[in-house]
Specification:
It is a single chain. The protein has one domain (50-306). 78% of the residues lie in helices and 0% in strands. The chain is built from 13 helices and no strands.
Length: 308
């Protein structure tokens, strides 16, 4: 776990100084334990990466990048509005608003030029995620280069396809007894795979798979745990927004949902980073005693820009 900055140490000392004298020593000892270290380290890291601002930035990029990509993929399979709505689990009211919006925008089919424009525009999500994960692991800010374009495209396609695969695989797996168990298992495995693949590719392997695994597993656990509540809220909110505000209400509802997903993704990445870099027994076990950040490999896009 990274050492606290002098400013953070000063704030901690001031906070301890505000406690009654009889509590200062016990609280200080508690902060030296594993729960205290990891809890304090997580709070410092969340503040360091400015998680609320970054989560909103990632959510906005998800909305403007993944949704057009889903429409593009759906147009290749025909029946665009139905496949798009089914992938996102839209209620009938919201699906009707999406259908109206797509019909008013003209043809829902994409030519080669249109598909390229969508894909290139969607890579802004990859760059936002690269900056976020570099901040989580305290790496230098990734620099954009043409050599990294394949990484940006791979990440956007992986995220978009994962939504299609999760929805489709759950439909199939839920038919296998016991009900809903296999669907959640499949969703968990796919969520972990995406949360592991995205930062590993965007950071050019500067952070090892072993280091990223803890945060990816936490992301899968948290998302699967909150899915029943978020799906219930999302369905109700989409139905109400579609009736009251039309397609713009549906858009804002999905943006709020994406903010929650982005916040969970970054927060679990931070917790995973704090856990595996802790010098205690649990941290050594999670890291396997190996180097987690490759010091001899430049972070982010720098690795690609130097490759022949």
């Amino acid at each position: 776990m990274p050492e606290p900055t002098p400013a953070q140490k000063a704030r901690l000392e001031r906070a301890l100084g505000l406690l009654p004298p009889r509590l200062q020593r016990p609280v200080g000892r508690t902060l030296d334990t594993w729960p205290g270290r990891t809890g304090l380290g997580t709070m410092w890291s969340l503040q360091r990466i400015e998680i609320f601002d970054r989560a909103m930035s990632v959510a906005a990029q998800l909305f403007t990048s993944v949704f057009p990509m889903l429409i593009l993929l759906a147009s290749w399979f025909g029946n665009t509005s139905h496949l798009f709505a089914n992938t996102l689990g839209m209620p009938p009211e919201a699906e009707s608003q999406v259908n109206v919006a797509l019909n008013e925008s003209g043809s829902t089919t994409f030519g080669v030029i249109g598909a390229l424009v969508v894909i290139v525009s969607a890579t802004s999500l990859s760059r936002a995620l690269a900056r976020a994960f570099a901040a989580v692991w305290a790496l230098s800010r990734p620099r954009s280069s043409p050599a990294s374009a394949w990484r940006w495209v791979a990440v956007v396609l992986a995220i978009a396809l994962s939504l299609l695969v999760i929805r489709r695989s759950q439909t199939i797996a839920d038919g296998i007894p016991p009900p809903h168990v296999w669907g959640e298992i499949v969703a968990f495995v796919l969520l972990v795979a995406v949360a592991l693949f995205v930062p590993w590719v965007l950071l050019s392997g500067a952070v090892t798979v072993r280091a990223l695994l803890t945060g990816a597993v936490l992301f899968g656990i948290v998302v699967v745990a909150v899915r029943p509540f978020s799906n219930f809220w999302l369905a109700r909110s989409l139905e109400t927004s579609a009736i009251r505000y039309g397609s713009i209400g549906v858009a804002f509802t999905y943006l709020a949902w994406l903010y929650l997903i982005a916040w969970i993704l970054l927060a679990t990445a931070v917790v995973g980073q704090v856990l595996v870099t802790d010098e205690g027994r649990i941290g050594r076990w999670l890291s396997g005693g190996s180097r987690l950040v490759k010091a001899d490999q430049p972070s982010g896009d720098e690795a690609d820009s130097r490759s022949p």
